[in-house]
Amino acid sequence: MSVLAELTKEYKKLGIGDQINFDKLYLYSIITHSTAIEGSTVSETENKLLFDEGISANKPIAEQMMNLDLKKAYEEGMKLASDHTDYSIEMFCSLSALVMKNTGSDYNTILGSFSSSNGDLRLINVSAGRGGKSYMAWQKVPERLEEFCTWLNKERAVIDPGDINKIYELSFLAHYNLVYIHPWADGNGRMARLVMNMIQNEFGMIPSIVKKEHRADYIDSLALSQEAKDPLKFIGFMMNEHIENLKDNIKEYKESINDDTLIVELDTINNTLNLTEKEAIVIDIIKKNANVTIEELISITGFSRPTITRAISTLKQKGVLERVGAKKNGNWKIMK
Fold first, then answer.
1. Residue 72 and residue 94: Cα distance in Å, rounded?
2. Which residues are bridge partners to 303 per DSSP?
3. What is the three-class DSSP state of 108?
4. How many CB atoms lie within 10 A of CB 59?
5. Which end of the chain has the lower number of beta carbons within 10 A, N or C?
6. Helix (H) or strand (E) holding 112
7. Tens of pLDDT along 307-318?
8. 109 contacts 138 by C-beta, under 8 angstroms
9. Cα angle, residue 18 at apex, residues 208 and 251 outer, rounded to 5°
10. Cβ-contact 136, 182 below 8 angstroms
11. DSSP single-letter state for residue 106
12. End-to-end CA distance of the chain
């Protein structure tokens, strides 16, 4: 069994994906890192508040709209993937329109007008990335995109759904090929990562995240593969990135459940005071970090602000929790 298959098996066996609101928070992480690669500075916590509470961050409006638009595109994309919908130019343009809805531009050329906000295919030649690489001529885009759809649909139909490595390789190759075609004037990177995650989701795989901290290596691997006209270097980078992310997630999860003393204490508190599930979760987090903020509790749990404040109020009334010190600089204390 490959390293990736072993890690995937352990990940699922541990039930990491079964945690409360895991799918939602994992999606928020994917969105945050994908937009960060394009220059967004909105954090995961800020996106959580933006998406769930409508609370605007102290960041440029364009960056916030970029994240909101990508969220809608992902929600639509995951539905299409779950329904095993075949890929088509119309689907891609529809998703691109969601990605670029509020940050796209209108273009007027001698060949006509088009809008990236509408998901229109480009009618201009573009260059981007390392060294200002020029992508294929715009005239070739429709035909090549149609060929890409035919290829991807065929590969999805014949791939072994139990071959984890092949599924990830297909998703990474689809990412590479879509960027290579570069169908739109903007948003190609976000679209390629979205399609990659759609393929993974369709076959029940754990979606890949390209961490913003590895942005430079990600761009370099893509550029080097494009220069060599060989996707292997990029696929290798993406495979390693996903493996390391799985290792980190498994390690963090094991550390979070490896405190036997904490489990015994929480069981005693729960049985004695008949805490609700949400109250017990709040206590669990505070036990690990007495300085955790309300905003962090919201981000970690996925609960709404009223739910968190209500749980804290009830815990105080039951004599389980106490706030020590000032509101900003104080901390939490769990009482006997």
1. 12
2. none
3. strand
4. 15
5. C
6. strand 112-115
7. 888 888 888 888
8. no
9. 60
10. yes
11. E
12. 48
Q: How far is CA 30 from CA 14, 205, 228, 274, 304, in A?
A: 21, 14, 29, 36, 21
**How far, in Å, CA of 260 to CA of 281, rounded?**
16
Owner of token pair 């779950």? 82
Q: Model pTM greater than 0.85?
A: no
Chain segment 250-272, per-residue pLDDT in tens:
888 877 766 544 444 555 556 55
> What Å distances lie between residue 77 and 43, 56, 165, 250, 252, CA to CA?
23, 25, 22, 27, 29
Can you list the positions of beta strands (E) in 178-334?
321-324, 331-334
- String of DSSP letters for 115-152: EGGGTPPPSS--EETGGGEEPPPGGGHHHHHHHHHHHH
Residue carrying structure tokens 């689809």: 174
Residue 110 φ/ψ, nearest 5 degrees: -70, -15
What region does 112 belong to: left with phi over 0, alpha with psi -120 to 50, or beta?
left
Residue 233 tokens, joined: 């270097």
CB 322 within 8 A of CB 332: yes
Question: 10 Å Cβ neighbour count for 71?
Answer: 20
Position 133: which residue type? Answer: K
Q: How many CA atoms lie within 13 A of 181 on its CB side?
A: 24
Domains assigned to the chain:
3-253 (1.10.3290.10), 259-334 (1.10.10.10)
What is the structure's pLDDT at 268? 55
Q: CA–CA separation, 104 vs 255, rounded Å?
A: 43
Spans in the chain with pLDDT lower than 70? 20, 128-133, 257-273, 327-328, 336
pLDDT the model gives residue 212: 94
CA distance 151 to 190: 21
Measure CA 72 to chain center: 12
> Using the 8-state DSSP alphabet, how is residue 185 labeled?
S
